[in-house]
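Protocol step 4 of 6: record predicted structures for both targets in the notebook before any analysis. Target 1:
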Amino acid sequence: MKVGQLRWREGDGWDFAPGGAPPSLVLYFGSAGNIESARAPAALAERYPGALVFGCSTAAGIAGDAIDEGGIVGVACRFDSTPLRLAEAEVPDSGHSASAGRQLGEALRGEGLAGVLVLSDGTGVNGSALTAALTESLGGRVPVSGGLAGDGARFLRTLVGAGGSARPGRAAAVGFYGGAVRMAHASAGGWDPFGPRRRITRSSGNVLHQLDGRSALALYELYLGEEAAGLPGTALLFPLLVWNPEAPGDTLVRTVLSIDREAGSMTFAGDIPEGWSAQLMRGTFDRLVDGAARAAQVARESLTEAGGGDALGVIVSCVGRHMLLGQRTAEELHAVTAALGPGVTQVGFYSHGEIAPRRRLEPAMLQNQTMAVSLIAEAA
């Protein structure tokens, strides 16, 4: 397996990966504006005609341990013994999330499927419904990872690229096949709950209407104070912890995608089950950085146990972490690089939701406000 980095800069154009054997897979991440300005999908498909071209929009790309907010980052990967397959599905609105997940699973399901990397529109999707349907369609045993495309705190328009085009309202996934591929995943948060615990008294799917019988939006605005004017973006700094009262140790974190001031409701990236409990969260610099390093270390150890050699590291971090860390975001990436050690080429993006198993040997699920690390290699 060979991995070469590539980059696009406005005014400079493409800095393609060095020559050699043609790549099997090309991944790219950049802002929606830059992807369209650079004609990224078409340009990459033309440059690498035999490769699967796959990517999405983000407020900032990740290349190694550096953040790239002004261009497009990517990698060109050559797999020696691993067949690949690319599938796509339309997600015109949240109600089509589960059907899109099933469509992807049915298209990729097949003998020797060893893992799936999935990217989805990040504004009009129920990420938990899409992920659950995808994993169920694959039988629940195939590792799945990826994330929801981003556009920073704007939550207006995201793109997913498959082949020679990128557009909103799409989900796409790559399947990895055969006995040579090795995949390892890990994720961690670093946020702490605060304030009163409340009951979710009215919700529908990923739309939250009421907490303790009161407007959920009104309660968020109460806590945010002057920052409430910046909703939904400012809610990224205060994610919601949710859990089933019958299983209080099994918690999920959810991030706001949009708000409806007239209805007093908030739409989250994943389901907010009625009858569950909820509590606001906030982060600290050291806890977030430590969480990212822990995720990288677990993934590296898992890959080593599986017998993987040099690897591609796909890093998906929540845009809320980027907002809170600010200029210290680089510390998070440095911690990941140090924990992964040599032999891993890193690329990634800041997402509206991370898709990864929460624990080893568990099915993938939508997570929010996490750092998710996926390592892909071939047998050493």
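Target 2:
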Amino acid sequence: MKILGMISGTSHDGIDVAVVDFQADGTALTGEILHTDSTPYDKALRNRLIAALPPADTSFAEVCELDTLIGQTFAAAAETAIAAAGPVDLIVSHGQTVYHWVGAETALGTLQIGQPAWIAERTGTPVLSDVRIRDITAGGHGAPLVSYLDGLVLGAAGGTPAALNLGGISNMTVVRGPDDVTAYDIGPANALIDAAVIATGAHPQGYDEDGRIAASGTVDERLLAVLLAEPYYRLPAPKSTGKELFHADYVRQAVAASGGEPSPADLIATLTELTVRTVAADVRAAGITTLAVSGGGSRNPVILAGLRAALPGTDVVLTDEYGVPADDKEAIAFALIGWCTLHGLPGNNPGGTGARGGRILGTLTPGDGPLRLPEPATEAPHSLRLHRRN
């Protein structure tokens, strides 16, 4: 079964896609990665999206228009992927998160936009979307859903492995055994760094390419102390967060509270060190022996060097060593969720999200013809082995 997974993450810089051909042999699942790609958002669309995100005020009219424009952009990316990899049985579109509503103890709602009907109309293929909300209705955080893939991939690894994804937000999945998985959002990874780059105009693309800006700056210890005092870091897992908390105004308020005026380079160096410190503290507390890193932040040498220096007893590697391309892991994870849904299987990991139990995820939009689902699987997979097509 060939499934196309698509996501634009909390860095809201573009759409990652992965086409995976899944085959089950009993409880062992294999996935051949046929195609991966990344499509940047048009600059005007990205700027419009950023302008509408919390804490900005927006309107239903703007949400409706962005829902259409992002849906059309996802549709074009899906069409391009299918042209490269051939027809697929299902498209899974995570869409673009614009709000994640977290209460005192758990998530209460979540909103991803990018109308899936545009994708179904353009490709003629069924689309699974809105994949997070069912986990939330079952008492979970709807995140990190990638923990389901992590548990299958790392379940047989020795020691105490963990998967770390460094997107806009950093999240970690700790795998103490095939049936003992915990996961949660640690805090900001690229979210505050990108916000500072955009606010200061430090890079025209709005991110710190190869960590060069951070490498040229000096950490402001007073500002870092203010940032580390954030109460979120001391909340117990499971927990989730997003740009509703960690955004440009948050940085401005922290700078004001520190009483300093760091240069753009020093500010970005400090925010990069914040990611290193918060992640390293949680990795040490969990006794992690191997940390498999993915996401855009895995390409930032300042973050990786900082983690390796802070964690001398932990082997810090990229997820590629486990067959999962570091740049494409989340798109692959949503393709896996689609395979689960079509086979009547839960696609969440309750230990990772805090849900009361496993749930079949998502909402299906038909393609050109009637929906034809395979026979439900009698047992969930216990392992997943991924490999690229030769």
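Step 5 preliminary note on target 2. The chain has two domains: 2-148+327-388, 157-322. The radius of gyration is 20 Å.
Proceed to step 6 after PI sign-off.
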